[in-house]
Every structure is written in C-alpha cells, then in structure tokens.
Amino acid sequence: MKQVLETPAGLPPAKRASWLMADAGMADVLKKGLIYAALSIGAITMLIPFYWMVITSLKTPAEAVAMPPVWMPDVLQFGNYGTALEAAPFGQYFLNSVLVTVVSTVGELLTTILAAFAFAKMKFYGKSLLFTVLIATMMVPGELLIIPNFVTLSNLGLINTYAALIIPYLASVLSVFILHQNFTSVPDELYYAAKVDGCSDFRFLWSVMVPLSKSAIVAITILKVIGSWNSFMWPLIVTNDRMLRTLPVGLQAFTTEAGTKYELLMAASTLVVLPMIILYLFLQKYIIMGISRSGLKG
Amino acid sequence: MIQNPTLKSTMKAWLYILPMMLIIFTFNLYPIVKSFAMSFYTDYNFYDDVVLAYGLGNFTTILQDSDFYLAIKNTFIFVLGVVPISIALSLGIALLLNQIKFLSGFFRTVYFLPFVTSTVAISLVWNWLYHRNYGLMNYFLGWFGIEPIHWITDPDYSMLALVIMAVWKGLGFNIILFLVGLNNIDETYYKAAKVDGATGFNRFWNITLPLLGPTLFLVSVLGVINSFKVFDEVYALFQAKPGPAKSTLTIVYYLYEKFYTEYQYGIAAAAGVVLFVIILAVTLIQFAYNKKFVHY
C-alpha cells in the first residue's frame, strides 16, 4: 500500500519522517501523542458498529436487549448462525450472490480487456468519437437507466432470471477507462516489435499486455466483485422469486421475516459482510490503488 | 509503423470492442435516450412497449406533487449534511495520518472498512444501534444525560440518523483520495516555509490547502454526485419505508416508488430526468467555481 500511495513526486516515507522529526522535543512527543489519541478515538468509532454486529450475533435474545448493554456474553451463542440459516434460505441466497458476482466479473473482465486494448493500441475510424461518447455516459446516474432496462429485459422475457441479474453488468465504461490508462502506458515499441516478429494482436494482448497490467486488472476485478456482491436496487427490482434473491435482497426481506430477533438479524448481516471484509483485508492495496486511479483520473 | 487507420484495422478493432459495445449500447446508451423519451410518455403500455400519447404531463404532474418537492428538499438536506461534514472529517484524518508512520496502515485499513461492506447489511446494523430502547447510540447519549431519542421513528431525527450513517460509511473513500493528494505535494514547499518561520497553521492554510485544491474539488464533486443518488441506505435503515412521515423520502426513492410500486413509468422517468438535470447543474457550478478559485 505504501508504494502505491507514495507517488513519484513525493519523497520516500522514511525521508519525510526524518524531516518531520528534525527538531523532536517534548512538544513533538506531545503532538504525536495527541495525533495517536485522536486517530484511535476515530478508529474505535469506525469499529464499534462492526463489533456490535458480531457480538450481538453471539448473544442470547435476553442478552441482546439487556440494558446496560452486554459487551461480552458469558457463552458465545454460535448456534444463532445455524438458526438464521434455517430461518431463511441464506444458503441459496449465498449461492446466487456467488454465481452473479463470479459470472458478471469474469464477463466484464473479458469485454473490458478486449475493448481497452482496441482503444489503447489499435488504429480505427471513429475511435475518439466513440471514446468521448462512452466517457460521457459515466455522467448519467445509473438510477435513470433502471426503468428502460427493466422494460428491455421484460420484453426479452428475462425478468426473474439469473440473466437479468447478470447481463446488464457484463461491461463497464469505468473499467474500460481505467484499463485503457494502463494499456496506453505500455510502450508502443513493444507492440510494433511483437508485430514484426509475427505475434498476433490477440496473443500479444494476453501474453504481454495483460501480465504487464496485472495490478490494474486485479484492482478493477476487486472493485467489481465488491460492487456486484453489495448491489441492491437492481436485484430488488428484477427478482420476485424468493429463490433468486441475492444476499442483500434476502437480508432485507429477512428483517420482516425475523421481526425483532436482533441476534439472528446480526448473524445474517455478519454472513453478508464477512466475505468482502476478508477479501479486503487480503487485497486492500489493490482496492486502494483502484480507487485512487478511478477517482483521480475519472 | 501503422499510423493511419485502414478499413482492415477498423474492422478488426471493432471486433475487439463489439462485446463491450453490445452490452453498453443496450444497457447504457440506449436507455439514456429511452428514459428521456419515456419522460414524455403520458399514456404507455409497457407490456407491449406501445406509446399511446406523448406530452409534458409527467413533468407537470411531478411539479405539482408535494411529495416530489419534499423529495428534492430532503435530498438537498442530505447532500448539504453529508458532503461538508465528510470532507472536513476525512481531510482532518488524512492530515493526521500523513504525520505518522507507526500504525498508519492499520488506521487506514480501519477507516476504509465500512466502504467495502454491503449498504443493506450495515444499515441494518445501524438500525439496531439506533434502537430507541436497546440501541448503543441512546446508551452513549445517556452518559451525558440525554433522553433516549427515537432515531428511526421520530421525523425530527431520522435525517440526522441517515446523515451520521452515510458520513461513517463514506469517510474511508475520501481519506484515500486526500492521502493521494497530500502525497503529491512537493516537500520543498514545507521546507522553504519552515526556513521562513511559518507556523503549522500558516503552512496548512497557505501551502497544503491551495495545493490540495484539485483533490478537494474531486472529492466534493464525487461526494455530491453520489449523495444525490441515495437510496439503499434509506430503504434498509427505515425498513423499506422512506422514513417516518416521509422525512427521508429522496429523489431516487420517489423514482423507485413511482416505478416499482405504482407502475407510473413516465412519471418515474420524468423524476429521473429532473435528478439528472439537478446533478448536472450542481456539477457545472462546481466546475465553474473550481476554475475561478482553484489554481493548479
């Protein structure tokens, strides 16, 4: 993560730190202490909702509504997870979310890599016009597209199918844009040299461009996975069938089914949140890189 | 080598962009045109996609609908609440993070955590934190002698509840962008300022803030655009209702209700068009302001 954030313009972190500590004295120690105190208070505020979610999910119903609150239950009720899984078809919801996320991510990667390569390295008529039009579409709020897309899919007879959850998300202008930036930075000489050696465009793309842009591809993949996993409004609208619900839609429906059983609700919420947190903890440098790129250049 | 496009190279390139274009055209480009058209459908049978009458009826309807004005008002209150608070907090945190080495990675991880989580799941957690009898929020406030607040059911507090949660969820995203911006500032400015005897506040006000201009601009534009589209948070925090007494009815929630529960496609599309125009106008104002006050 360090390397990603330290852009070439800045000094390496070690140098900056030594500069900051040049006139270290009591005042500086005090200042550092205050900084750490402020950041810690902030961090605790950020973490409390997560702690409360997990710990509530491990309480008995009586402990969940006890006042003053129980910070650590005597016995951790892992059985709540089993009860929640039985109370609603979360297993099915989970499989649906995995299916939709995996297929739309793989599909988007394929369409994105091919298109970004064409825009970055190939010469063709209409290129700049098309690219401008695509960039302009990013300005339009996605919510506006929901109504005509719903009509399109219902005309195709695809409402209440996995296809409705997946097909509209098989391509993304933002991803093409990010990858295009990366592909452009690969020297043209490399491309022309490969051509001279008789390497086809297709082979060059997969054996040179893609490996060279690995981190950008990982970044757009993870951002896509997170977005797809957490997506709510579209799956809510195009599925009525309980068995087609994704996790967020199923979880929302569960609130009416579970009523006031907060320990079960929190167990279900934990199941929805946990996979993305694990993914984030392992791959956070790519996520942060993806955000810095899409944010700063988009 | 090949400097100009040829028919052959064009055909080939189009083959590469075809899969992406098929999806983008069908689900991004065409619907943009279509939704603008739909906002003028005053009599529409969506089962057969047949339009029986056109007109401005949808726009006159929403402009006479007090709910729509309420939705616009609520959305503006939400944006004006979330964006400045979030920017101030995240800039402050980024400045602090930038001054430490030990544990800075850990703090960054923690602050960013809410961003990767499902809005629906985390809104349910906040719904629980806001519970009037058993919620942690009221418990903490109780330490300061504050009477329990009905966060979720009192129209006077529901918007505040929504804003607090949204700031919490979006903070990490802004912090990341500010950290990138801070790292792009050349250290020699600070060294020179220090030689000249500038105080910490002076350095912040005269170096950091102006040089952070482009980042500040980006964060505020992205924040405004995203906040105008708020929906998931409202739906999940208030259990599939637009808050008590419609106190958190937003423009997208209005669009959703017209479209999904009332089957008023034309009216919903008109509301979407108004949302688009508002976002466009606000973004253009921000760009104009940026041009005038931010120097690169």
UniProtKB/TrEMBL annotation, chain A:
Keywords: Cell membrane, Membrane, Sugar transport, Transmembrane, Transmembrane helix, Transport. It comes from the Bacteria. GO terms for cellular component: plasma membrane. It is found in: Cell membrane. It holds the Pfam family BPD_transp_1. It is a multi-pass membrane protein. SUPFAM superfamilies: MetI-like. The chain crosses the membrane at residues 34-54, 93-117, 129-150, 162-183, 204-226, 264-283. The keyword Transmembrane applies. Its main location: membrane. One of its GO terms (biological process) is transmembrane transport. InterPro entries: MetI-like, MetI-like_sf. PANTHER family: ABC TRANSPORTER PERMEASE PROTEIN MG189-RELATED, ABC TRANSPORTER PERMEASE PROTEIN MG189-RELATED-RELATED. Belongs to the binding-protein-dependent transport system permease family. This is Multiple sugar transport system permease protein. It comes from Bhargavaea ginsengi.
Automatic annotation (TrEMBL), chain B:
It is a multi-pass membrane protein. It comes from the Bacteria. The keyword Hydrolase does not apply. Coiled coil: none annotated. GO terms for cellular component: plasma membrane. The keyword Ribosomal protein does not apply. Its main location: membrane. Keywords: Cell membrane, Membrane, Sugar transport, Transmembrane, Transmembrane helix, Transport. GO terms for biological process: transmembrane transport. It is found in: Cell membrane. Belongs to the binding-protein-dependent transport system permease family. This is Multiple sugar transport system permease protein. It comes from Bhargavaea ginsengi.
